[in-house]
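Go through the following before class.
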Amino acid sequence: MHPRMPAEWAEHEACLMVWPTRPVLWGPAFEEAKREYAAVARAIADFEPVIMIAAPGLAEEARAACAADTGGHAIEVIELPADDSWLRDSGPLFAYDEHGDRVGVDFRFNAWGEKHHPWTADDKLAALLLDRLGTPRVHSSMILEGGAITVDGEGTLITTEQCLLHPNRNPSMSRTGIEDELGRRLGIEKVIWLPYGGLEDTETDGHVDGVAAYVGPAKVVISLPEDPAHPDHARMRANLAVLEASTDARGRSLEITAVPQTAHGEVAGTPVEVGYLNFYLANGGCVVPVGGAAEDEAALAVIASALPGRKVVGVPTPVLAYGGGGVHCITQQLPKAVRA
């Protein structure tokens, strides 16, 4: 029996993050990026503990930034070498083995198709973090970022062809080979391939966490821009058609909630789109990136409608969007270390 990755809504022991480390990525918005990371950490700490990884020499800065106005849970800062601060993609993916024990799956990382140099420390980060957590490591030679997948914990995974089949990731692997490796390492029995991520998401080559997310058994939230002029208007409708025609690993049709709102802004003279779908499901809550736009309130209401019983909180993160991501991109859930 293979390890199985639990859904994001399963109970967490903590949320893992990495403090910003790469000034060249953020340029004039570097200090604001740190403030947004701290704001996200504090919002998540209202629901669950946070473990913030800081590159050597940055721990005190991270502690000071995250210390104010924390909720009922601690934000612990630990030091480990890191090149960048997108732990969803560089960190391990957690699963439960056949005995119900937590393991960490360490896929290879190549900075989204070798877009940012160096990435050696990030490629090694998963192994170091798992050792620090005392969690057994399962190695995979496949390149995979956590933002490229969303799972239901019951054998189904949704991804995009735009990303996982991109030649800058695993050019020697076929679609079937990728599916087989996802089955061996994460317990995936069925992969639903959406054709598209975001057209303008050139940084990750179309990660699924910008366009769709599992929020419950057989329940998916998707981006569906209502503006016909939006570059993804037709593309997201193609994704919708695939989901409507799909069943999950248990043979269930999917209940789909569409988020029609989009939020645009500007950071350092650069237009940005804040992706509402790039949210993090914390214990009892959902932390959503917002852009300070008129559409924020309606988008939060739609997401809340798909998450009854959870407190949905918006955190302004235009600078995260400027850097190429959102709340989900900078977080990674650490599931409870209990037998499943």
About this structure: The chain has one domain: 12-335. The chain has a mean pLDDT of 96.
